[in-house]
Amino acid sequence: xxxKKVAVLGASGYTGSELMRFLLVHPNIEVVxxxxxxxxxxxxxxxxxxxxxxxxxxxxxxxxxxIPKDIxxxxxxxxxxxxAEIIKELYDRDVKIIDLGADFRISNKxxxxxxxxxxxxxxxxxxxxxxxxxxxxxxxxxKLVANPGCYPTSSILGLAPILKNKIADESSIIVDxxxxxxxxxxxxxxxxxxxxxNEGLKAYKVGEHRHMPEIxxxxxxYSGLKVNVxxxxxxxxxxxxxxxxxxxxxxxKITTKQLIGLYKKHYQDERFVxxxxxxxxxxxxxxxxxxxxxxxxxxxxxxxxxVIVSVIDNLVKGASxxxxxxxxxxxxxxxxxxxxxxxxxx
Length: 346
Description:
Elements: E1 4-9, H1 14-23, E2 29-35, H2 44-47, E3 59-60, E4 73-76, H3 82-90, E5 96-99, H4 108-114, E6 128-129, H5 132-140, E7 144-146, H6 150-164, E8 173-179, H7 194-197, E9 202-203, H8 211-223, E10 229-235, E11 242-249, H9 256-266, E12 273-275, E13 293-300, E14 305-312, H10 316-331
Parallel strand pairs: 1-2, 1-4, 2-3, 4-5, 5-7, 6-7, 8-10, 12-13
Antiparallel strand pairs: 8-11, 9-10, 11-14, 13-14
Helix pairs in contact: 1-10, 5-10, 6-8
């Protein structure tokens, strides 16, 4: 079959780099157009030397009219606001669009509250939220997919089965998440200098992180419940990875073994979700560089609560890998095509 032609807008960031890593080994994809405002005129292999000999395309300025007409799939790895403006110009083309930014993940009401005025609110309802494991049938038919945020991916996959089965109290969920520094992006900032981050661990945006409404909306839509989450993110001095420790009050008696069984059944056909055995809890180093989400579970019978530990690579399952997974579903390819690599260890 002819290869599908792909454009990546905003290719010089970490998510752009990871997209290249997967797309370049995808048997049915050809990367033909890349943009990067700060690096326009350079070759992608100059910005990312690890791609030398794999891809040497010149990075172009971000001009929608210059994107070739025969592109089949566009990945937009752009800042919020910018992404929506560009997608608005591209939407009427015969093309599939996957937005890795925040512009189409939440309702217009919540977007106004957390981000400001939306450039094209009419497209929000046309977008499909791209947690593949939850919305696969909708993703199959989608023209525009809103790729989820990294924290929400680990949180939502960790909570979906227990909320769908009405086992947990949806009004008092605590999500404590820790992320590697790449989650902040590649642009220089004093907060993420080596000497500012190394040997430290800090919470940030406590009770006001923009991923909180995304987690609540996605889980509410999936479970039919009004989900309320207390979400606190932390920055941890490592390159990549997210570990979310989730605390829920249970509304029925259930053992750890039974709850693990429920999760295994819920995700039994999912290629990229792995449920740990009893008394086994996952580490970020066992999903590094991969599209897996690993989940460990413990029920505390003395106070009828459960602790769910969910780990992902924030740049892969939390961004670029999930975007490629969604693309595969949209185009009718095998879902794991281009994503078959095992995690990198150590």
